[in-house]
Amino acid sequence: MSHASVHQHTEKDVSRLVEGRGSNQAVDNGPYNLQGRRHAVPQHRHVGARSMAPLILTHYTVVSALGKGLTETYQALRNRRSGLRLCDFEDVGITTYIGRVDDVEDMFVGGGSTSTELERFDCRNNRLALLGLQQDGFIQAAIEARERYGAHRVAVILGSSTSGILETEHAYCRRDPATGALPSSYLASHRYTHNMFSSAHFVRTYLGLRGPAMVISTACSSSAKAFATAARFIEAGFCDAAVVGGVDSLCLTILYGFASLELMSSGPCRPCDENRNGLTLGESAGFALLEKSEHAGRPGAVVLLGYGESCDGYHMSHPHPEGTGAIKAMQAALLRSALTPGDIDYIHLHGTATKANDSIEDTAVHSVFGSSTPCSSTKGWTGHTLGAAGITGAVIAAMCLTRSFVPGTLNTTRIDPSLSSHVLLENREQPVRRVLSNSFGFGGNNCSLIFGTI
Amino acid sequence: MELYVNGIGTLGPGLAGWARSRAVLAGESPSCEATPMEPSASLLPPNEQRRSSESVRWAVHVAQEALEQAEADAREVTSVFASSDGETGVLDRLCTALAMPQRTISPTLFHHSVHNAASGYWGIATGSQQSSTVMACYDSSFCAALLEATAYVHADERPVLIVAYDLPPPPPLYAARPLRGGFAAALLLTRTPAPCNLAQLDLTLSNDLSEEATSMDDARLEALRRGNHAARSLPLLAAIARQCVTLVRLEYLEDQHVLIRVRPC
User: Which of A25, A135, B54, B184 counts the highest number of beta carbons within 10 A?
Assistant: First the structure.
């Protein structure tokens, strides 16, 4: 009988070491001695996080309105080419811009050499997921991990906020006029398209994986939190590796929903601009293969150093006015990675370009990092991809680390003078050792991730 | 790894509250198809009680019961919410509105449609800023949450609250996902013994499917278990109620079993 039992944790509890607040005590971080990494405890109050062993992102990729895969994404960032366009999604009559991925309408999940088992997953969300899997050799990397560890030892942990709801929106337009019943074809496919587990179910089936699987759905922090859950699952011994990431695709619910909240800009979003007037919605799919460093370590590899999660406990759609939840998430990520604020070279902001969100994130970032750490939002390139924003930010962070590059903020002409953080407008070429990426969602759900290299 | 159960909340047909459920699950009282109790969810301010969905109130109701039983402070507790289908009542109204020519939806309806609505309302009601994860894994959603809660307790040592809930969807969606009953269960778990412990759990993940997953002897409870993912927790709750050493097997997708050694405290 093969058991994946939960083994006893051996790392020291960092929270015990920070009792002497403000002291710079060294932390034993186990066998993972990261180059240039200062082993110091952040000087802030105990937020309940323990240090973690870094996990390698052995492969990663993303598809968004910027393009398919790492090269196209990097070129668009580097050349400051936005992926946003006037809304041309279905027959949506809202004056706004969107970050739509080309060609998804013409795809089909299944067919060709794939098994018929996959066809039932066909919907925009899973097409986008498939497009993501197909980039940068990700499928092959996942299959190799499956062969290396065994199918049961590789988890699939993805984030999504609306899954394949577009199928249900379409089905509601085709209800039986007499009975109100939904079309039978929809009823049969609901589990594989709209149900919240659909994307992980699809990816797991496609890759032939049999380990733990789930979809995290905490709105816009979903796919950032997928990293946290995967890290815990590897640490607990439930799996040896995990396909993490997320996918969210355009649908009527989010377009008309954000319009109803009056949070959507009529033009391309302008994060941190003094005249910013709302977000631009986008869609993306991204994946990372997360493994323990002793199995997959190689110099220069990108690693997850820490994660921090929190809630606002304040309002369903408005962040805590003082940013206390966001502060807590960033502090917890620093504590878990045993880094100080000064160790972070760049902050990838959630930066949605709504008045309140950017202002409150600025307050939070400034309170943890002061005004010298460079930060920027890439939403002017991709739009806000909601449940996939976390993985999109993670892949951009990985590109910053490997290509010595920091994106500025696109579409923004004058930074809001009331912001105190060091917001970059222009791109920079500079060595980057560690990046913190923020994702904050409805329901006041926050997650910060820290990436570095070994 | 050991875990301790400090508090349990339940709501379902004939299973309103842990005191009642414990007696039924231990075989001391007969199971009955009683009308499900309306959740009180008194922790929610009156305004939020009025605005929140039925499934949010079910989730908050059982979460509140588990925490009160354990005398735990919600502000110190990490939470893991599990729902296979989420806010189906809200989604029905949303998709109905989007099928009309003018596509007018209310902002409140929209932000209530997120899968983490219950988690968000729990945070607002308790003021808790601890991490809250919300997950979906179809019929294995409770199992996924149990693994996540175990991993959380292991990583952070904070008490972790699991809240699993799902209600039958409204008519048009019911045909797509015929969930039976309405069921919600909450368990407060800690890594070390607390002043009040209902059971000790030892959890492992197994690939060996040679033995059947644990089912319920009582036909009514077995129908509930099969019909609603949140009620997949019933074999575990029954083992805790019976207060004897039991090995519970829960199906995790089609590929694995979660084995839980339950010991009385």
Answer: B184
Distance, in Å, from the CA atom of A242 to the CA atom of A226, rounded to the nearest integer, reads 10
Would you call A311 helix, strand, or coil by DSSP? strand
Contact predicate A434/A386, CB 8 Å: no
Is residue A399 included in any domain, yes or no? yes
> The CATH number of the domain where B96 resides is what?
3.40.47.10
Q: For this structure, is A384 an active site residue?
A: yes
B245 lies in some domain: no
Sign of CA dihedral A410, A414, A416, A418: positive
| Phi, then psi, of A284 in degrees rounded to 5 | -160, 160
Q: Which of B181, B179, B167 is nearest to B58 (CA)?
A: B167
For A197, the closest of B137, B154, B205 (CB atoms) is B137
Q: Does residue B186 sit within a domain?
A: yes
Q: Which residue has the tokens 């519970």?
A: B248
pTM > 0.95: yes or no: no
Here the tokens at position A65 are 């309105």
A52/B155 Cβ within 8 A: yes
Q: Structural domain of residue B81, as residue ranges?
A: 2-196
Domains: count for chain B: 1
Domain that holds residue A404: 50-453
- B68 to chain A, minimum CA–CA distance in Å? 19
ipTM of this model?
0.97
pLDDT in tens, A319-376: 999 999 999 999 999 999 999 999 999 999 999 999 999 999 999 999 999 999 999 9
Query: Is B55 touching A (CB cutoff 8 A)?
Result: no
Query: Which residues of A are less than 8 Å from B104 in CB distance?
Result: 260
- With respect to residue B256, please indicate whether it lies within any of the assigned structural domains: no
